[in-house]
Write a structure and sequence with these properties.
Blueprint lengths: L2 H14 L18 H20 L18 H19 L1
C-alpha cells in the first residue's frame, strides 16, 4: 500500500473511533480534527495564501497569476460554473 493510501486509511480509522484524524488525540469538539490541529491548519493556510498573493499567484490553485486580484481566470471560471449550477438546482 502506498504511503498516501495508508495515511488516508489511518485518518478514517481515527475519525471512526472518535479521535482526531490528524494527531490521534481524543476529539475536543465536533468534527474530524481537534481544536489544536484545526488552528494549526488555519494558520498554515493563512500563511500559504499570503505567500501566494505576495508572489502574485492564485491563492486557490497556487499555479497561475492572479486575475483582477482575487484568483486566476481558470479558478474564477470554475467557481462561476459551480455557483450557476447550484442556482439552477435550487430553482428546479
Amino acid at each position: 500500500m502506498a504511503h498516501r493510501d495508508k495515511r488516508g486509511v489511518e485518518y478514517i480509522h481515527r475519525v471512526d473511533n472518535g479521535l482526531c484524524g490528524s494527531c490521534g488525540k481524543p476529539l475536543d469538539r465536533n468534527g474530524a480534527i481537534c481544536e489544536a490541529c484545526r488552528l494549526k491548519r488555519k494558520e498554515a493556510n493563512v500563511a500559504r495564501v499570503a505567500r501566494l498573493k505576495e508572489a502574485g499567484l492564485c491563492p486557490i490553485c497556487g499555479k497561475r497569476p492572479m486575475y483582477e486580484g482575487l484568483s486566476c481566470a481558470l479558478c474564477r471560471d470554475k467557481k462561476q460554473r459551480v455557483e450557476s449550477a447550484r442556482k439552477e438546482r435550487r430553482a428546479a
